[in-house]
Amino acid sequence: MADTTGKGLAGVVVADTRKSKVDGEKGKLYYVGYRIEDLAEHASFEEASFLLWNNRLPTQAELSEFTHMIARDMTVKPDIIDVMRDLPKNTHPMGVLRSMISLLGNRDEETEDSAPEANLRKARRLLAKTPTLVAAWARIRDGEEPIAPRADLGLAANFMYMLKNEEPNPTEVDAANVYLVLLADHGFNASTFTSRVVTSTDGDIYSAVTAAIGALKGPKHGGANEAAMKMFMEIGGPENVKDFFEKQVKGEGRKIMGIGHRVYKAPDPRAVILKKHAKALADTTGNSKWFETAEKLDELARADEYFIERKLFANVDYYSAIVLYTLGIQPDMMTPLFAMSRMAGWTANIIEQWADNRLIRPRANYVGTIDEPWVMIGDR
């Protein structure tokens, strides 16, 4: 009988990587050896992306040139925007993004060229254009005109500008940048693994990224922050948290969205950082309702024996929901922002997979019957 350990590939190592290391027992995360805390404090999203693609930090000259190229590549041609205008306004934003990335692949002359230099150029274009697509759809579905990116702004600032059509607030830009840095890569999560599986077939980078977006869309992966925010909105405010916890969580066994993680058995370092930025945004905007709701629920869970015994802590989705909502991001737009960030990690892993590519083809443990007698259709 085949080995049945590692259901869902739990604990199964499928490849070597230099991109990121997740230490769930200690609550540590590293990109190419650098602590996530240092990157969140000091790095721009462009700098973190350069690190993931090149396995080293850029010089000042390299970063300036790279940031300039990202800003230049953020422009999306009008015909792509026109396709978005024709989509039903109730289309899920992740469905829109999935389709638009696939369309970009059909328009890219280098799509079928998987040479390292070509893949880096395509990765840069994907990283740059995704924020433009996400911001454009947020406006189109609300009946507003998309805003073109500015050459003088970095990626996080440009996104906030394209979303709101106003000069970005430094506190908002800082929070958006930190969010993008923190979500850029995270081991062989479901969507990253999906991108590597497609790449292993010698599939092009756009196919791999489109498949990754499909994997990220699910509520057990990227959609968890959307689910967390909807839960906070259902609770309604900090004054209702205790009743929610006692009746629904303790009484009915309802899961707290955003608490608990498949890997982390210690506090998720990304959640710790995002909580600080959620508090800063609450103080700056004067809108502390949702932060206080999340913090109070978090405190009740961390003091409860059930959560303590199982080592269940707030994960990145929990406080990222508060950060993004305070930035003006609607719940169903939160997963596309996740994709904006993870685009750096997906493309880094795709490039790494191409460097030593082998078809990923696991086996299944068949548990059905064998040698069933054939019954003619008239006798069934």
The CATH H-level superfamily of the largest domain is Citrate Synthase, domain 1
CATH architecture of the largest domain: Orthogonal Bundle
CA-CA gap between termini: 32 Å
Taking strands numbered 1, 2, ... along the chain, how are they ordered across the largest sheet? 1-2-3
Provide the β-strand percentage band. under 5%
* CATH structural fold name of the largest domain: Citrate Synthase, domain 1
Q: Count up the domains.
A: 2
Largest sheet: 3 strands, antiparallel
Radius of gyration: 22 Å
Oligomerization state: single chain
CATH class of the largest domain: Mainly Alpha
User: Mean pLDDT score, rounded?
Assistant: 95
Q: What's the shape?
A: globular
In total, how many beta strands?
A: 3
Q: Flag low-confidence runs.
A: none
Q: State the secondary-structure class.
A: mainly alpha
State the helicity in percent bands.
55-70%
Q: DSSP helix count?
A: 17
Helices and strands, in N-to-C order? Answer: EEEHHHHHHHHHHHHHHHHH
